[in-house]
Amino acid sequence: MSKLLNRRQIASFRKRLKRQKRTLVFTNGCFDIIHEGHIHILQKAKSLGDVLVVGVNSDTSVRRIKGRFRPINKESSRVRVLSAIGCVDKILVFHETTPFNVLKSLRPDILVKGADYSFDEIVGAEFASKVVRINLKRGFSTTDLIRKIKNNC
Predict the structure, then answer these.
(1) What domains are defined for the chain?
(2) How many C-beta neighbours within 10 Å does residue 32 have?
């Protein structure tokens, strides 16, 4: 069974979870080069509920946010890597710069972001029953990893 869902599928999936009284946790990001910091956030997010849905920025969306040299890995590759991570239950690719519309329709029980975001910076927080900020794992960021690689070439 594929972990990747489209918006129509995620809506019916959400309805099913509500009927089953299961807690849906949502987090999102570019997940361009998966590293220990990502795994830390994903595992913590999963521990907060029954089902973890990960929103992934599309290639076009990542370029708008990070610039023309990103993403490093194509959307299909990023989805495939996330699909292999056991704590990730479902994945949804979105094309907008933020997951606002996804959150508006999904209305997760828990919305998870890194603690580098203040509560007032968290897009779509009004659509979640609860917002949880998770401390980042120090020394792990995709931007820093890319910088390290460039400096060593």
Answers:
(1) 4-121+131-137 (3.40.50.620)
(2) 23
| Distance from the Cα of residue 107 to its chain's centroid | 15
CA distance 97 to 9: 21
Better-predicted residue by pLDDT, 136 or 38? 38
Residue 136, pLDDT score = 85
The H or E element spanning position 75 is: helix 75-83
Kindly report the number of other CB atoms within 10 A of residue 67's CB atom. 8
C-alpha span between 113 and 108 (Å, rounded): 13
Number of H helices, E strands in the chain: 6, 6
Amino acid 26 reads F
> 143 near 44, Cβ under 8 Å?
no
d(CA 65, CA 62): 5
Residue 35 and residue 53: Cα distance in Å, rounded?
Answer: 18
* pTM for the model: 0.92
> pLDDT of 26-61, one tens digit each?
999 999 999 999 999 999 999 999 999 999 999 999
* Beta pairing, strands 4-5 & 90-94: parallel
Helix, strand, or coil here: 63?
A: helix
